[in-house]
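Schema walk-through. Below, the input block comes first and the output block second. Nothing else is stored per chain. Lengths vary across the set, and this one has 710 residues.
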Amino acid sequence: MKLFTAFVAVAAGLTSINGFAPNVAFKTRHFASATSLSSTAVDMKSSLATAANEARGLAMDSIAAAKSGHMGLPLGAAEVGAVLYGDQMQYNPSDPQWMNRDRFILSAGHGSMFVYSWLNLAGFDLPMDEVKNFRQHHSMTPGHPEFPNSEHNTPGIECTTGPLGQGIANAAGFAASEKMAAARFNTADHKIFDHHVFALCGDGCIQEGVSHEAACFAAHEKLDNLIVLYDSNDVTLDKMADYTQSEDVGARYEAVGWDVTTIDGHDIDAVTKAIADAKASKNGKPTMIICRTVIGKGIPDIEGTNAAHGEAGVKFVDASKAGLGLPEDDKWFVSDGTRSFFNDVQAKNKAIYDDWQKTYTAWKGSNPDLATQLENGLAKKQPSADEMFAAIPPMAAPAEATRVSGAKIINNIAELVPTYISGSADLHGSTRNYIEGGGNFGAGGADKTYAGRNLYYGIREHAMGSIMNGFSYHGIFTPSGSTFLVFADYLRATIRVAALAELGVSYVFTHDSIGVGEDGPTHQPVETVSGLRVIPNLDVIRPGDAEETVGAYVASVDRTDGPTALIFSRQNMDQMDGVDVDTRRQGVLKGGYVAKKETGALDTIVMASGSEMQHVMKAFADSPTVRVVSMPCMERFDRQSDEYKESVLPSSVPSSGRFAMEAGVSAPWYKYTLGGKVVGVDRFGFSAPGDIVMKELGMTAENIKAVVGK
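--- output ---
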């Protein structure tokens, strides 16, 4: 009987061949009677335990071959991966973009060999040669998981992770998007969205503040389709976790409204039950499963220590594999039994997929308009820029702030693109990006439903950016979100990931300069626009009037291969009524254009963006040899053909005849002035009415005219 009990314990993952043993009382509670397990259950657990050790072996061999990587999580959380991919998640490797698949996000992205191993075992199109090619140039297995983009296409990777904590917030975005999709597209007769979102995180993710921001949002909006598995191994990179962490994480998450359960993360029975219970729960609470694990499990020389985090265990790999029942000399070993087991898993999931396809076909036949809206959202099929321009009438606005112009235009956009959504970090009243009639997103209440198109993020900019990325990764909705420009740095890390992952998200940043005035230098961004411009693949658009704001909004929605930051003013600005409407709108799409053409022999070019356009237009209205160029978006302008750029900024005009003006740091403009003078603000501002701050710091028509001397 003792031998049989030991076999059952190993098959269930309660012990391992290399000697890890959890609390005996815990073991007894679940396995008090051997007869409580059917032979099928024992076979399942045995297969999962074998797969877990073989996944460990894949991680060991790939990291050893690369001489680089993070071994701790792939080895320590192997049983979690076995249960997710071998039992509890619904997916179809032959259709990795199936819209109702469960999503898995590896928030602790440094442990990327975890997900690569399981994608290979689960049957995704990630060949073993690519697993062997871990962290190499042009491989499908980069150092951290990367969302399919122009550089990488790894089926089964749901989002780009690595900056710790963001994955938890991304997962909250996925979960919110699924709730929105279910509310907008499910019907009483057909349910086409009912999937779950899983995230695996570590202590680093928990310590990063963005995870807590997102946890509060997820709990408040009752995202009970979100399941976070916390690989709790008491280790961080430098030290054991208790060197920097003493909080009760479970109590903290319970306090904000999560269901929390703590399990032995190597006990396959416990992992299975915890995930199954979380999936079945409909109590309006997201779930955190704290998986107590041993980091680097399977390499006795380093397991349970901070040395296991990286590749320190490489030199012990061959000796350790025997302890896991793996052949020492057969690298990247996967048994026939494991391949056969996952063939059966695929068949089970394929049956679920086929049943769903029947439901979807019936739903589509009964709801053709909804089907068109959904499929257009997934395909990012929407009116062209020209069609949107045609549908938005001329603004015919008085002098007004571009945030005020934007308040009208966003509603035009929302009407043209039904899957466009908005949100704000507690600033809708100031940023003016509310979709009228769109409803508010959230869990019940007098004016909140999951179908609502306006998200209230609270004062959580970092989480807002990550949640917006989650919406975009999920693939149906086109997210935008707002805050004051000076707070863009709170979400800068998420903007960078959006640019890297080529996500079509939009940021509405208002209160764009020293024109903010009385709030003083803490709220007057002078360096922020330029700081955003240096992020690769981010378009930064600072429009100069209402029609340019139309162009900015259309450009942001039309772009699907990267994010766009819209920079809007608090202060009023004059309209460029002397410039054709279409010229202004189309000029934004090109990034820069001639707003005022010289009438005589060209010898001077003056460039500007945003509210400074009114000053240069006024200053040189009667200057026959001066050309005024509006440059709302440097990134778009730089992508134009050499011929177009030459037509706007002729090389015949030397640096002595080139000038620029912007109420921000001057550095970015010198590539266009070729060293010519830039009237900028290379210092912090001060508290005073906005027009006084602008005048004192040289942002006037009189000053730019004096500098140019025309």
